[in-house]
Amino acid sequence: MKLTSGILGMTLASAMAIVSANAADMYRAPEGVSYKDAPIAAPIWSGSYVGINGGYAWGRDSDVTATPPALPTIDPPFATSGWFGGGQIGHNWQGVVHPQIVIGVEADIQGADIKGSGTVPGLATTAENSLDWFGTVRGRLGYSVGQALLYGTGGFAFGGVQDKLTVATTTKTHDATATGYAAGGGVEYAFNPAWSGTVEYQYINLGSNSLAGTDAGTGISGSAKFDHEYNTVRLGLNYHIHGGYEPLK
Q1: What residue ranges do the domains of the chain occupy?
Q2: Residues in the chain with pLDDT < 70?
């Protein structure tokens, strides 16, 4: 949680720095010109966009346990981590409730190499898990100042999880599409009307799963609980189909 809080703090600090730097870019009415005739920033975030992204993920500790005859249980935790990359598509509406409020929807799909494993020393018991792909369908709510958009996001998440428990010569597996939720936030910066870059944090929870087995030859019993919870940080690049600055009519 400390690491997650630190990342969120850094993201917000970066966002505020961008906002402050661009507040001076807001259009103002020239002296002697009425407000109605003054050129102002149009809703640059309104419209559809597509993009690519990539980032890093780390997961919550999972547990693997083994119990041989007449000996106590051994329970070492292990964590998952790895890289991912993919693309996103979305649509924004700016000015529906307030000129600087942006409401949007976004969907993304990622290929991933996020995995972890743990072994009980001397008891031939190993647990492995991986997240091979995942995606989300989320809402976005943001506040625009100049060329910067600070936003929160949350919604539905899904992904392909694989769990495996090996106890000596006995193997148990679980391979499924898990579902859950995603929540996070980030900052997006418009380099020009067509292109923007994002820095985003998401927490993704795809639930948990347990496996257990006993090897008949050795008498060793093993079990593992796999927690499919991930912290993700990503960088993205979006191409906006609509956008730009227009005079107020």
Answers
A1: 2-240
A2: 1-43, 70-72, 74-75, 243-249
Nearest Cα to Cα of residue 114 among 86, 84, 82, 79 = 82
- Whole-model pTM? 0.78
How many other CB atoms sit within 10 Å of the CB of residue 122? 10
Q: HEC string of 29-50?
A: CCCCCCCCCCECCCCCCCEEEE
Give Cα 212 to chain centroid, integer Å.
30
What confidence score (pLDDT) does residue 42 get? 60
Please give the pLDDT value at position 15: 39
CA dihedral 48, 51, 53, 59 (to 10 degrees): 40
Q: Using the 8-state DSSP alphabet, how is residue 146 labeled?
A: T
Measure the CA–CA gap between 187 and 11, rounded to whole angstroms: 7
| 81-103 CB burial, b ≥16 within 10 A, e <16 | ebebebbbebbbebeeeeebbbb
Q: Does domain 2-240 have CATH number 2.40.160.20?
A: yes
Q: What is the dihedral of CA 167, 170, 176, 179, to 10 degrees?
A: -30
